[in-house]
Write a structure and sequence with these properties.
about 150 residues, binds magnesium ion, binds adenosine-5'-diphosphate, seven-stranded mixed beta sheet, alpha/beta
C-alpha cells in the first residue's frame, strides 16, 4: 500500500454501484503487488462490485464476477490480480497455509470476499486493507475502509 495518492480510509456512503466502483478505484490507486484486501459484508452489499471497480482501475478488462464454481479467479491488468470468494468453503482455520498459494503471491494484488471463513488460517498473506460493506436501504451502502 502506498501513501500517495492517499487511500480512502474511513466510512463512506454510496448511492449506487458506480459510486462503489469509484471508491474502489481510489483504493486501487494505492495498492501494490502483494497487497491482500479483505472485503466483508452480507450477500448483495456490493463486495463483487467493489472488486470490479478496483480491477478496472488496475487495468483488468474482462468480466469480473464472483467466482462461482472455483474458489478464485485470476485476472491480468497492469498488475496481476486475484479474486477469491470463500463463501462456499467451510472454515479454513487450521488448513494448510499453502492452500491459496496460487492466488496469494508477492506479484499479485488479491481481493478476498467472505474473509471470515479464513479466520485462524495462516495463509492469507500480507493484509493491506479491510473493507466492510453494509446495506443502508435501496441502493445505499455504507463502506468502511481501514488499512491493516
Ligand atoms: P456481493 O458480492 O456483496 O454479494 P454484488 O456486488 O454481487 O454483491 O451485488 C451487489 C448488487 O447491489 C448489484 O446488483 C448492484 O448493482 C447493487 N447495488 C445497488 N446499490 C449499490 C451500491 N451503492 N454499491 C454496490 N452495489 C449496489
Ligand atoms: Mg460477491
Amino acid at each position: 500500500m502506498r501513501q500517495q495518492p492517499s487511500p480512502p480510509t474511513g466510512v463512506h456512503r454510496t448511492n449506487g454501484p458506480a459510486e462503489t466502483e469509484a471508491l474502489a478505484a481510489r483504493l486501487a490507486a494505492a495498492l501494490e503487488p502483494g497487497d491482500v484486501i479483505l472485503i466483508a459484508g452480507e450477500l448483495g452489499t456490493g463486495k463483487t462490485t467493489f472488486v470490479r471497480g478496483a480491477c478496472r482501475a488496475l487495468g483488468v478488462e474482462g468480466r469480473v464476477t464472483s467466482p462461482t464454481f472455483t474458489i478464485g479467479q485470476r485476472y491480468e491488468g497492469r498488475v496481476p490480480v486475484s479474486h477469491l470468494d470463500l463463501y462456499r468453503l467451510a472454515d479454513l482455520g487450521g488448513e494448510d497455509p499453502a492452500l491459496l498459494a496460487d492466488y496469494l503471491t508477492p506479484e499479485r494484488v488479491a481481493f478476498v470476499e467472505w474473509p471470515e471463513v479464513a479466520e485462524g488460517f495462516d495463509g492469507l498473506g500480507r493484509v493491506a486493507a479491510r473493507v466492510r460493506l453494509a446495506h443502508r436501504g435501496a441502493d445505499a451502502r455504507e463502506l468502511a475502509i481501514e488499512l491493516a
